[in-house]
Write a structure and sequence with these properties.
Blueprint (H helix, E strand, L loop, with lengths): L9 H8 L20 E3 L4 E6 L5 E6 L2 E6 L4 E6 L5 E9 L3 E17 L1 H4 L8 H6 L3 E8 L17 E3 L1 H4 L4 H14 L3 E7 L11 H5 L5 H31 L17 H7 L9 E5 L8 H19 L5 E5 L15 H15 L3 E4 L16 H14 L11 E8 L2 E7 L5 E3 L7 E4 L5 E3 L1 E5 L2 E5 L8 E4 L9 E3 L3 E2 L3 E2 L10
């Protein structure tokens, strides 16, 4: 999967890498601690920066004053939990004074992943309408520049901006719609930190030592040197052919410059590490396309990434919300195997393996011909519902039906679900997308009907059924929902015994 690749000036990267090393006469702050920032309510908040050795640094906000002494060029204080509100003034005193007047206290969410998270509001469906209506001083935005690094960086660049037509048009559309709906529901300030890169696989968002400690995932690290060697050879060949073509001044077939392979951990180092230890409520994640060919590995890789972030932020099992892959590619006329369906299953598995993990299902807003479906508003809306139910404990139905277990009867299988809500419903016509198989494992399209809180699946022509699949395709055509207006997740009941983790 492609994505725009941003080139960052070498000088900026160098400054970031050396941010904590240079000798300073004045107190310095990370980019996140700046005018317009939003601080997480209800938890201790870390404020940190750099100063001369032994320099006394004092931080004041509202009725709090905290003082510390810089050690090895760094300092940090912890503010007591605060209630939502603002704007407040935050002042920091060392040999110099820094003061910010537009500081809010509310809810902080990190928005990360690959190009469907990077996808801007200006590129999305009905963009002009949403941009014109976006002004909201209680939503503040921070965009992390796309930077790769071999080592964890201490800082990034960027600045907080109040949400407005001018600042939101290039911001993540999914993140904006999520934040908009969440702010409306909670009625408190919301800060959104956008840190994504199109085309990125999940392993580049994981700390290297975490990958190395996992025997299954260490193979990713081990494979990189050979991959990079292949890239260097391909690049040398490309440059030789390009030089030859230029020397002959003759028309040559278009030459395509090879792309460097993704290096494990490089975006964790450049785009997640600099955010620590800024207090957050949770994260939303839209990624998986680049790992679809390795869906079995994603079952371990994705939960490992979530646990890595949680450990490094030191905020406990904070809420982590993912977007299940949208339908894409050719619609198949018969049931078949699907790498994308397996990746969706791995995403669903994470919600079972780890606490406080939720998922937005978007089987209704895909595009067979576009890996970047333009309708991002439903995606953000469903993530916001999941946040309300999981992170904030509201008594609402925040998920569509999720397969729970099956009962095999004579000639049929009855499927039971979690998140039935007000009841099951077939949206727009009879149920579709169900396939059934006998002991031979050959799936055929099935008849399906809603009976109470179950779906009964059968086939007039098939043998005694043993397994069911729903939406098991790259581009599923499905319509099982609950009456709360949320679609069911695709699933299969024929997992191997070793896969029966959920």
């Amino acid at each position: 999967m492609g994505g725009r690749r941003c080139v960052v000036a070498a000088g900026v990267v160098a400054w970031v890498a050396l941010a904590g090393l240079a000798v300073r006469a004045d107190v310095k702050l990370p980019s996140l601690v700046s005018e317009g920032m939003v601080l997480q309510q209800g938890v201790p908040v870390r404020i940190w920066g750099w100063a001369d050795e032994g320099e006394q640094v004092t931080v004041k906000i509202k009725n709090q004053t905290e003082t510390t002494i810089a050690s090895q060029g760094k300092w940090a204080v912890t503010l007591a939990p605060m209630k939502a509100g603002g704007p407040f003034e935050l002042a920091i005193f060392g040999k110099n004074k820094i003061a910010f007047k537009d500081v809010l206290v509310g809810e902080i969410w990190v928005c990360s992943g690959q190009s469907n998270m990077q996808w801007s509001l200006s590129q999305s469906f009905e963009a002009e309408k949403h941009i014109q209506n976006s002004a909201n001083p209680k939503i503040h935005l921070f965009s992390v520049p796309r930077v790769k690094s071999d080592k964890p960086l201490e800082d990034t660049t960027g600045s907080w901006q109040a949400c407005s037509p001018a600042t939101v048009k290039d911001f993540t559309a999914v993140g904006y719609f999520f934040g908009r709906d969440l702010q409306k529901a909670l009625k408190v300030p919301v800060g959104l930190i956008h840190s994504s890169w199109g085309g990125s696989p999940a392993e580049v968002w994981v700390r290297e030592s975490v990958l190395a400690a996992n025997s299954e995932l260490k193979t990713i690290l081990d494979a990189y040197p050979k991959s990079f060697e292949g890239y260097q050879k391909a690049l040398a060949d490309y440059e030789a052919r390009a030089a030859k073509a230029k020397a002959k001044e003759a028309k040559q077939p278009a030459l395509r410059r090879p792309s460097a392979p993704w290096k494990p951990a490089e975006l964790y180092n450049g785009m997640i590490a600099p955010l620590l230890p800024y207090a957050i409520k949770g994260a939303i994640w839209y990624q998986g396309e680049s790992n679809a060919s390795r869906a079995a590995q994603y079952r371990s890789l994705f939960p490992t990434m979530i646990q890595n972030w949680r450990r490094d932020w030191k905020l406990g099992d904070f809420t982590f919300l993912e977007v299940q892959l949208a339908p894409f590619m050719e619609i198949k006329t018969e049931p078949a195997e699907s790498a994308w369906a397996e990746l969706r299953e791995a995403q669903l598995l994470a919600t079972r393996l780890l606490p406080n993990v939720g998922m937005a299902v978007i089987t209704d807003v895909g595009d067979p011909k576009d890996i970047h479906p333009k309708k991002k508003e439903p995606v953000g809306a469903r993530l916001a519902l999941a946040a309300q139910g999981i992170a904030y404990g509201e008594k609402i139905e925040y998920s569509g039906p999720i397969y729970k277990y099956m009962q095999v009867g004579p000639g049929h299988i009855a499927l039971h679900f979690d998140h039935v809500g007000k009841g099951l419903v077939a949206k727009e016509g009879p149920l579709k997308g169900f396939a059934i198989a006998g002991a031979d494992g050959r799936f055929v399209w099935a008849d399906a009907a809603i009976e109470g809180d179950t779906v009964v699946v059968s086939s007039k022509d098939g043998p005694r059924p043993v397994a069911v699949r729903y939406g098991w395709a790259d581009c599923p055509v499905v319509n099982l929902w609950n009456k709360n207006g949320l679609p069911a997740s695709p699933f299969r009941t024929d997992r191997a015994e070793s896969d029966m983790s959920y």
